[in-house]
Amino acid sequence: MIAIDSMMVCLDLSDIDETLVRFTRTVCERLPVKKVFFVHNIKTSELSDDFREYFGDVNISDEIEGNITDIVTEHFGRATEYEVLVSEEPNTEVMMAELVKRYSVKLTLLGKRMSDKSTGALGTKLLRILPCSILVLPETASFNIANVLTPIDFSDASVHALHLSKSLADQLNLNLEIMHVYKLPTQYFPLISEEKAIRKAEEVVKGKFADLQKKHGEIAGVPYTLVRAAGKTVAERIEMQLHKREYNLLVVGLKGNNPIPSLSLGSVPTKLYNMDINIPLWFVYSEEVIK
Fold this sequence. Notes:
- The chain is an alpha/beta fold.
- The chain has helices spanning 16-30, 49-55, 60-75, 92-102, 121-129, 156-172, 194-215, 234-242, 267-274, 287-290; strands spanning 4-10, 33-41, 81-87, 107-112, 133-138, 147-151, 175-182, 224-228, 249-253, 281-284.
- Strand 6, helix 6 and strand 7 form a beta-alpha-beta unit.
- Helix 4 packs parallel to helix 5 (121-129) and helix 8 (234-242) crosses helix 9.
- Residues 147-272 form the UspA domain.
């Protein structure tokens, strides 16, 4: 069963904040969440001399905390215990990483605008640096979740994401599907026929699925789809699969084996995050990776 002791919600004082707070309420109504931290950081570098000259000694932290509290009171109510945290630090992502460690945050909720409105740079940094799983809510996403897609590559990270997806599906009565994107060694064409290569590749992958189902019996009945990359990236094929059925949530495992933080995220999650996908994306770290 999925239970979240502490959850952090990142707010930026824009119109997406109300959406994030309402979605947080939905999460708390469907999953056991003990406490939520609504967080905003005032970057000290953004407080210009003109601002200080115009507003004087006004306590901006108190003003912002009051504004966030009003939004939470209206759109979150008393769904569960919560706290509003406003800080003034030069580096937002480092500050949030410290909060994750201090309060043992298991899940961070992050809003995302479409690419024509935002570069998504901060979100990418948070994905790389926060030592917890991250649920990304695009501004166009629906709160109604019925169908879940989990891409796997048979790594420990993707198997962990699959276990979380299965637990979520069982807990909330959702439909879960698995997909795997495979590539062919095209450098050997035309020495071997493409048809034979496809047949062999799918045979190998089906064998991996059979082994996975034997090892993890609880996923034996979950339907899976094999998709050939065929000139597309894995992320592009995943995005294309999302358009073939009305999926409402994408769950992706994050790897953390690389000691260099900027390289530990992996190319597929990075590309998926930067795409204009209009459903929530749950990027999952295992407890072992976080430790």
